From TrEMBL:
Residues of the signal peptide: 1-27
Keywords: Hydrolase, Membrane, Protease, Signal, Transmembrane, Transmembrane helix
SUPFAM superfamilies per record: Acid proteases
Entry annotated with the keyword Transcription: no
Xref: CDD domains: pepsin_like
A biological process term (GO) from this entry: proteolysis
Span of domain Peptidase A1: 83-413
Transmembrane segments: 455-479
Keyword Ion transport appears in the UniProt entry: no
Gene Ontology molecular-function annotations: peptidase activity
Protein's recorded name: Acid protease
Amino acid sequence: MKAHTSLAGAAAAAIFTTLSFAPLASAGLLSTSSYSAPSNLEKRQSSTATPSAISIPPSQYWEGNDGPWSDFFVQIGERQYIQSVRMMVGTSVTSVLAVAAGTGCPDIYGSGCQNSRGGVFNTTASFTWQPNSIYGTRIEEPLGYSFSANAGYDTVKLGLNGQDGPSVQHTVVFAYNPSDFWVGIFGLSPYPTNFTNYITPQTSFLSVLSANNTIPSTSYGYTAGNQYRLNAVYGSLTLGGYDLNRFTPTGVSFPMFGDIGKDLSIVVQSITTDSGSPSNLLPGGAITMFIDSTVAQLWLPTSACTAFEQAFGITYDSTSGLYLVNSTLHTSLLQRNANVTFTIAGTQGGKSVNIVLPYGAFDLTAQFPLVANSTPYFPLRRAVNSTQYVLGRTFLQEAYLIADYDRGNFTVAPCSWDINKVNTPLIGTIRRVNATSEGSFIGSSISSGSSGISAGAIAGIIIGIVAAVALIGLLIWFLRRRRNAEKKRTAELDAANHGFGDAKAELSADSVKPDGTYYAASKNGGDELAGEPIHEMTAAERVKAQELEALNAGKTGYSEMDAGGEYYAPGGKLVSPAAEMPGHDTIYEMPGSDVHEMPAPQPGRDIKY
């Protein structure tokens, strides 16, 4: 039985739209996977917030029997049963390959085997290990690698134990023995792993992180690092984004190939050198090559290998299958320090990018069990056919790879070696397609000369936002104050027209003028001016126009309260009796009936309302 990889879902094809800065990405981009959500999802972060990309710190070790190479810490298991190992990054691998304890280090490998292999994983010592069976891994099968391993599931976390690194439960883990991959491999491919069939795909580490919103998209940025620049520069790995301080933007991106087993394929238009003859190291013309950090070497056509042999004086060792370099040639090549330029593009004749490798990138060391003793070697392998054309980890010493699976494209840019920046990550976030976020920024592409938004610009944006919010708040306050003032003025005018001023509509025609005559033609009129009957407003229509009784101790009836004279002082105390008009007779609202609105309170008692 063998394990296979399959496409989780169609990746969206689009131009590489990326830039979104982590410092402002506290909020606003899900994978296009078609399979159902797995059971190994951990607690989801806020669904409305866009997480920032995660920078994984390197282990600061240099390891491997074909390098050495910069690797990363990986924790397997949980709680007190966690086992810490170090692993290389495998861009074509969908699972985690850990060197098995015991069988991975037989006695013939010596006492230092476990440390040399980056640590080993003991499945029986893990409390959370769930065994499956023995399966063929099919890792790098086109290159002739084929081995089986003990497959199962466990919790996997990136970074040192105790660090707040990304973690995924129920991750597919292979515990293997062979020395083909001397140090374990941490798979970055988002495609699922299948055991014997395609019915029950097991989601990859990267896909789970994207699905549960731990990272902003199904993407990553990676470069291998090297020992020949700036007294050694460690590898760089960013999940959900990239490190802007590790590459020079080119404005060029490539579409992923439809074959998921060769998704990161490019067209190598030419390979040339500035020292030695021939200068053309790809005499057969342009070829399609697969970028894969799982292996170390460059796998080229035989004609290209022959051109390298002639230009650099290297010879092929049939026993090891490597180009071993003796001490004399090694010294000569170091002094010569030739550069090799790879001109790559997405298609034949398409817009190209140059990746230049100095000789230091080819100055590697082969160790046991590849060879009996440590020996310098040139990382070149002879490919049997086009399925073996691979640009391995050697190429990624000088190239920065950004893979965006949500959009179905990737970028290969030359590494940047600014001594003031290379060890200080500047993380950019890649959002999912069509995702938006308040407070975050999205650029159209990674373009030449773009170094992101500066700290000063960010501060200016924040200050501008704060000022805008303050201005809006001030405007709202002013409008509310103006509206309240208008309401107050309207209420005062309304009160003046409804019983609290000279309410002419309430005057009876029988009322006496100041000169002693009546407003009506006769005293018996009883109608309001203009001859209309008097109709008081009901309480339901005029809630606030509640009439107040007027006290006139010298009369048997009571009139309505006039605006003249204060009747209530603050606090509701009676000040002085006040009648509406200085009438001489009882005033009737309607002809023939007395006005008895409310019984009068006894003098001297507080009036409550």
